[in-house]
Each structure stands twice: as C-alpha cells, then as structure tokens.
Write a structure and sequence with these properties.
It is a single chain. This protein is α/β, with parallel strands linked by helices and 212 residues long. It has ten helices and five strands; from the N terminus they run βαααααβαβααβαβα. Helix 6 (118-126) links the parallel strand 2 and strand 3. It is globular and about 55 Å long.
C-alpha cells in the first residue's frame, strides 16, 4: 500500500459508478412496460427496498417483490420477469474497472462499498469483477446501509486507514455527506468526464495514465 502519497484507498459504489444504475433504470422500464408512473414506481420501490429490510439482508428477495407487486397490482407478473428487468441493466463499466486496476497497480487499495442485495453477487457470478477489489462491503451481507452513517466507521475499522486517506466515489450526494462526516474524502459521480477531471485533480500522479 502507498506510504508517501496523500491518498491510499479508493472506494467505489456499485450501481451508478462501477456499473450502470440497474435498479433505477430497471424500475423505469417496469413502469413503462405496465403503464405506470416511472418516478412513482422508483420512489415506491426504493421505500420498499429499505423498509422491508431486503437491502440489508433482513428478508429474502421474494418479500420485496411481493410487496412491490401488491402496491402496483402486478400479481400476475412473475418475480423472475421483474428481477430480470433490473439485473440486465447492471452493466459493468469496463473503463471504470480498468481505472480501478490502474489504481491498484499504482499501490492503492481498491474497495467496493455498496447498498446492494444478492443482485450484485449474481452480477459477479455472471461477469466476475470482485477480484478487482481488495475488500467488498455489501449492505446485504453487513446488515447495515449507508443511510446508517456508522457503516463508514465499520469500514474504517476493517481498513485500518486514516479516513482522510480514502477517496470515496458515489452517485448520491447524501452518501458522500455521510462519508465526509467520518472524515472520508468524497467525489460525487455525475458523469465520466467530470469524474475523471475531479479524480485527476486529487491524484496528479495519474497524469498520463488515464484520460483526464
């Protein structure tokens, strides 16, 4: 691990950062397929995800879909059809995985920290990518989500690294703010170009190694 640089750990969210945001796009696709309001479906699905406890591994996936189908009168639709709309949209970003590997080659520890379910594990089984990371923290296995800001303190205990030596990339501003309360440095992911520009401004040693 890097000893003489400002940062030594690069930590990434999954959906919307390492991969396309399959949950958001999947819910919008379900809404379009069944003539529902996309924003209403997404908001309700998100609420069920957290309130049911599925996101933190408290209940099985079937409980989530049962509540979702009741809310939108989709009882005739199979869980498999609905989950496939989500899973097929978690498309890994090859350029991001290449960047993560370059960071590791440069001495960084790479960490995945995601509010995800068994879905991310299925993505990894289909197209292995966990091996790009030194540590994988998934809310489904931790029993705790980013909304509980203490998850960042738990991660710090495992990593044994000063928080200000960690860069955390997430596509949700609220998660960045929670991480920063623990002393972690955040980068809000909006798009590829602005992200690379911000990353290179934090890590000038990347000049010539990535397109900033």
């Amino acid at each position: 691990m890097r000893d003489n640089k400002e940062y030594s750990v690069a930590m990434f969210d999954f959906g919307g950062v390492v991969a396309e945001e399959g949950f958001v796009e999947g819910m919008k696709a379900i809404a379009g397929k069944y003539g529902l309001d996309p924003e209403g479906v997404l908001d309700t699905a998100t609420d069920i995800l957290y309130e049911s406890g599925y996101i933190c591994g408290k209940v099985p996936e079937a409980v989530f879909w049962a509540a979702f189908k009741r809310r939108f009168s989709l009882d005739a639709v199979s869980d498999e059809d609905l989950r496939n709309e989500v899973l097929k949209r978690f498309v890994l970003r090859d350029w991001m995985l290449e960047l993560i590997q370059r960071l590791r080659d440069d001495g960084f520890k790479a960490v995945l920290l995601t509010d995800q379910t068994n879905w991310v594990e299925e993505v990894n089984e289909e197209t292995p990518f966990y091996d790009r990371f030194d540590h994988v923290f998934n809310s489904y296995r931790l029993g705790k989500c980013k909304r509980d800001g203490s998850i960042f303190d738990d991660v710090l205990k495992v990593l044994q690294v000063d928080p200000d030596r960690i860069i955390f990339v997430d596509d949700k501003d609220e998660n960045i703010k929670l991480a920063e309360r623990s002393g972690i440095r955040g980068i809000l992911y909006v798009d590829k170009d602005s992200f690379l520009k911000e990353l290179c401004s934090r890590l000038p040693e990347l000049e010539g190694k990535v397109i900033c």
